[in-house]
Amino acid sequence: QVQLVESGGGLVQAGGSLKLSCAASGFTFGNYWMYWVRQAPGKGRDYVSGIKSDRGYYSDSVRGMFTISRDNAKNTLTLEMNALRPADTAQYFCAAARVRINISSFKKEDFDSYGEGTRVTVSS
Asked: Among 16, 44, 31, which residue's Cα sits nearest to residue 96?
């Protein structure tokens, strides 16, 4: 059974840091593109970051502040978030795809697997 389980969300003050983790199971983790996607209250899904092998890709809004990484031996995806702003408040989802996603136009159905998310709240 394919499963993605996020953890690490919480409440943090602006300027603070959080580290999100995603535990993957039920598929060959190393063969997949892995992504972080977020959805703020009342808004659509936004691409945050993606990774294949050891190269990370980022949206303009988080580049330089967030770092994505993966451990294929442990089937784990991580997102380190620094210099958090209230605008980063959202539900953060881990997602897997066998092919690279069009980050400018995607739907939840484009991914092969999608987690339930972890909530990040940044207070001002």
From this structure: 31
73-116 pLDDT, tens digit per residue, is 999 999 999 999 999 999 999 999 999 999 888 999 999 999 99
3-class SS of residue 22: strand
Q: Is 64 left (phi over 0), alpha (psi -120 to 50) or beta?
A: left
Report the distance separating Cα 77 and Cα 93, nearest Å.
11
Residue 88: name the closest of 4, 3, 9, 24 by CA.
9
Binning pLDDT at 50, 70 and 90, where does residue 1 land? confident
Cβ contacts of residue 25 below 8 Å, gap of 6+? 1, 2, 3, 75
Sign of CA dihedral 51, 19, 111, 101: negative
Per DSSP, 98 falls in state S
- Continuous segment of H or E residues that includes residue 46: strand 45-52
